[in-house]
Each structure stands twice: as structure tokens, then as C-alpha cells.
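tool=predict chain=A
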Amino acid sequence: MQGFIQIIKSKSFISLVGNGLGALLGVITFALLARVLDKEIFGPYLIFLAIYGIFETLRIGMVMNALVRNLAQCKTIEDEQEVIGSTQFITLFLTFIYIFVITSLYFVFKYFGFFTEYLFFFKWFVLIAVISAPNNYATWYLNAKLKIASMSAIRILNQLVFIGLIWFYVKADGSIYSVIISYTVSHLVVSIMAVVLGWSGLQYLLKYTLVKITEVFHFGKFSMGTLLGSNLLRSTDTFIIGSSFLGSAGVAMYNVPSRLLEIIEMPLRSFAVTALPQFAKLFADKAYEALRYEFEKKAGLVFFLLLPIAIGSFIFADWLVLIIGGESYSESAILLRVFASYMAILPLDKFSGVMLDTINKPNLNFYKVMIQLAVNVVGDYIGIAIFGNLESVAFVSTATFLAGMAFGYYQLNKHMGIKFNNVLRYGWQEVKIRSLNIIK
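tool=predict ok
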């Protein structure tokens, strides 16, 4: 019983619960939109999110991992304030650059008549970029400080506001404008709260230093490329399907089972969030043997924890797709079964990337994601050209993650002596130990 209480009080468990609620609300949000919007509107909205997600990835990639890593190594309050001020400066700078680029593209596309059906997106991209900045920075800061409950709370509030607006506004209106307005308002509410509670980092903006900015930039340029590649890894399926003869309806069909991947990613994010600061501290203290053991143990533990979810997703695919998308998306069950084939290896791939960042090899993590992106893009085009269906795109995803995982563990073995068989061995030992503690 004592072991069970310790597990409940752990930051990993709190993160798991928070991310679990967040994932559940995300699924509810997706299910609501799939029911209240026509496929011809739902598809373009998913494209809107995919495009905006690229910018969010730039900000997250440049700032978040550098913030988490640097704050974990700070010795004084002054150091912390300099790190916060410097990362906040970079966040705002990236936002202004993005606004300039988007505004320029808007006028260029409007003049030449390009993408006229999606041109109004650009106005909303600018507004959301500004409004969401305090909200996003707050989650990075709270992650770095391991204030997991607070971080989960603002994410959940964001989703609850969005769900409420979908139910009372989008449901009645049914247009893409109503969805985007609701999405923007949900970020505005949480950003205001983040500023009021002092989580936005804006109060330390003038504490930035050129040294810290340079340090964050040199680490973040690879981290940004890595996350941008990861985002493109998800988005390329959407873009390629949408630009093919499968169209926006194909995008909607593909994204219903894709959304269910959040179920498997939910505990994965929880463990990764708490692992990065711990790994960074061990690396800073040069406790390499302890770091190697912690990595092998945690990566293996999460693999075995998520394996039953992957198996369950395969078995109950028809039922799960029916709950999320309704009867009109029942054909997507076959896609979910394909996704389940690589669900279990996601933690092994994710943790290898976290570890490469930890040991100050963000360039290798970037190369890993670029390999995956190349495999995914080439595979998608070949699959659609030869087979002409969504199943071929889903199958390519398995090859994509296997390629990234192989590269990641090759590099970790080379630089840290990490062995893949130890990941499975120590992970299974940890599963048995924790199971016995719960029983006791």
C-alpha cells in the first residue's frame, strides 16, 4: 500500500493523470468537431491546424528544451531570471518574424491568386500567434520547474473552453470561421491567466543577456529543426493526402484514427516531461553511469506500460473509431489497426530523442528526424501512386519510426554505451518491482 501511495504522489503519475485528462478532452474535442462539421469543412480545419502547428513547432523547438535544460542547471535565482528573460526574448522575436513572413505571404498570394480558398487563414495565423504566446510559454516554464499539476491545469482549461464554445457556438453555426474563432478565444483565456499568475515570463523579459540568448540559440537551432521535422512528420501525411485525388475527405478519414494515437502518446508525454529535467541534472553532474541506467530503465518501463494499449487498440479498433468519428468513419478502423503496429515502439523512439538532447547532441536528434521525414515523404508518394489508398500511407508510418529508432539507438550506443537489450531487460525489471510495490 505504501508503494502505491508513493506512485500516486510521484510527478510522473501526476503528469500521467494530467495528460490523461488532456488526451481525453482532446479526443472529445475531435469527436465533437467530427459530428458537428461536414467533412468538406472539417478537412480544411485540420489543414489549418497542420499549417499553424509548423509555426508553433518553431517556437517550441527553439525555446522549450533549451529552457528546461538550462533551468535544471541553474544555481541561483539570478541565473533563472536570465534564462527566463532570454528565452522570452527569443519567443517574442520569433513571433514578430513569423508575423512579418505571414503578412508578406498573404499579400504575395493575394496578388498572384494563389490558395485563394485558404487565404483567410493567414489573418488568423497572425492573431493566434500573438494571443497564444503567453499560454505556450507558461506550459514550458511550468514543465521546466516540474510544476506538473499547474501545467496540466492550464492545458485542461484551454481545452474545456474550446469544447464549451464548440458545443454552444460551433454546433449552431457550423462554419470554419466559428471553429477558428473558438480556437483563438480558448487560447486568449488561458494567456490572460498565465500573465496574471506570473507564468508567462514577461516580467523577466528585460533580464535577458546576450550570452544566454546565444547559448539558447545554438542549442535551440537543432532542437527547433528536430521538432519542425517531427511536426512535418505528422503533417506531411495530411498535406500529401489532401493534395492527392483522395482530397479533404481523405484527410478527415485519416485523421480520425490518427487522433487516437493521443491515447498512446498521453503516458509517453508524461514520462518524457518528467524525465528530461532529471536526465539533464545527471548529465550536468557527470553522473553518466546513473544517467545510462535511468534512461534504460525508464524507456523500457514506458514501452511495457504502453504495449497493452497498443494491443487493445488493434483488437477494439472498430469500436474506438465508432466512438470518435461515428458511423461515417467506420472504414478508418483498418487504419487504426495499422497504427497499432507501431504504437508500442513510440516510447523507444521518443526517449532516444530526449536522451540525444540531454547529452548535448541535438544535431544527432535532428538528423534522426530528418531520416524519418525522408522515409515518410518518399513512402507516402510511392504508396499513393502504386496502391492509391490510405492504408499504404499508414503502413509507411511503421517503417518511418523503425528507421528513426534504429538510428537513435545506434548513436546512443556509440556515445553513451546504451544497449537496446538493457532497455528491455531493465524496463521489465522495473515493471515487476512497481507491480510488487502496488500489491504490498
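The mean pLDDT is 83. Residues 2-439 form one domain.
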